[in-house]
Here is the input.
Amino acid sequence: MGGTTEASRLAQALAQAGVDGIFSYAGRTSAPIAQPLPTRVGGFGGVAGLQAFLQAERITQVVDATHPFAAQMSSNAVQACAAAGVPLLALERPAWQAQSGDVWQHVPDIAAAVQALPTEPASVFLAIGRQHLAPFLACAQHWYLLRLVDPVLDLPAERGQLVLDRGPFTLEGDRALLQAHGITHVVSKNSGGAGAQAKLTAARELGLPVILIARPFIPARTVVHSVNEVLRRIHGVSS
Ligand code: 3Y8
Ligand code: NAP
Here is the structure.
């Protein structure tokens, strides 16, 4: 189950090792990156749907390489794999840790991130995708720079501006973006990984505060942190 940089790297390694696999996207974006494995797109239909899929496709191993904020999918995978008796491995990247120079405020969730914004008007880089924008846009005093994958909404110029980009992002690109728009605050999920990290490095260099949203709870499962570890565990191979 994919949708992350690590999932794409694992798909490449599995294809090269000749492992018979199926790549799964939720279908959140209009044109997801093509994968070197047979690919299915869309929800399974909850825990029961995933369990039925595992049985129908005679799946012998599930690798949950979804994003740390895809908590519903990961929770469903724990339940469906237990019910179907199919082993589950989670491929997860470590959370980001603050370094000297970082001005981070850790908040537990989206609602707390909205509360953490100042009362006086700010120019906010909202790089959390499009699923949780409403509570931020309700704070009418702020100007928002929204980075989205697909053009799913438009914003009057006095409220903010959209930038359409899929990532992975670069330090040069994100630094230029923050400077060009006079950004005063960055809001980010603690996603980890290299694909979304550039904005945090750029914020550190520019001395900008970052409101960092903690990862949601995911039920216990076996977690590994590298593609090679996945390959070693599922087939005794390494790329
Ligand atoms: C549909 C597949 C690869 C995977 C690339 C990674 C890196 C670029 C950074 C910012 C942060 C954000 C967002 C982000 C990143 C990678 C990775 C990552 C963050 C694609 C993809 C799918 C999605 C879904 C999308 C969410 C959104 C989140 C944008 C493809 C590009 C903000 C998460 O429009 C929407 O509804 C978008 C929804 C879930 C979060 C949200 O709540 O809106 N990802 N992102 C996957 C599917 O359908 O199963 O389109 O090709 C994948 C990637 N996005 O193969 O190289 O590994 O993290 N994705 C966050 O981390 O905060 C952008 O802008 O700085
Ligand atoms: P989510 O809230 O945890 O999942 C909601 C529902 O979407 C799931 O119950 C499942 O539907 C379906 N789903 C999610 N991931 C799927 C997958 N890989 N294959 C098939 N169905 C999937 O998920 P999300 O946070 O919206 O993330 C959706 C996708 O975007 C995931 O692939 C994730 O890796 C990727 N992504 C998410 C983020 C993020 O910030 N959330 C960031 C980068 C990439 P059913 O219940 O019907 O099975």
